[in-house]
Write a structure and sequence with these properties.
Strand content: 25-35%
Low-confidence stretches: none
CATH topology: Aminopeptidase
Largest sheet: 8 strands, mixed
Structural class: alpha+beta
Order of helices and strands: EEHHHEEEHEHEEH
Helix content: 25-40%
Number of domains: 1
CATH superfamily: Gcn5-related N-acetyltransferase (GNAT)
Strand order of the largest sheet: 1-2-3-4-5-6-8-7
Mean pLDDT: 92
Shape: globular
CATH architecture: 3-Layer(aba) Sandwich
Distance between the termini: 34 Å
Amino acid sequence: MTTQPVSFQTERLSLRPFSFGDVDDIVTYAGNPEVSRFIPSIPRPYGRRQAEEYLSRLTLMEWDSRPTFAILQSDRVIGAIDLNVRAAHGTAELGFVFGHEHWGQGLATEAGRAMLGYGFGRLGLTLLTARSDIRNKASHAVLRKLGMEQEGVLRGRVVQHGERLDVAHFSLFKGEWMAALKARQS
């Protein structure tokens, strides 16, 4: 089944596919060294050329295998959230990044809940996972708020900016998500 790119709203955010008009906003949030510190895929330094290359790569990806959303607040892109889907297994890996000035406001949890609904609902996935730099305690807190459980630590799993790092691995099954959703609604 092929899905089409979609857009949706949360209480404070809009999520939609990226467009080439988003380049300057991407440079603003991804170019901050505090942001790239925990994201291996963001090169340093990060500028307009890297943002344009990122958007070009997104146009080559099939939406079904890598739905990637720009996260907007007040018509400005403040971050990104995606699912790396492995359809044959009914699984996907969740990833997100936000501009530094938007940290600590509950926005990642809000966008993450929307993506869980999209992945488990619209895409019919059975398991969502996430990985996070072991030092990124704020990301770990977001993943726990989403109901994900830390399964373990993958030692030396990534090389980021020339340094080999450990990565915490999290997961959530659809049944667990549905039970938590019902509990929040009652």
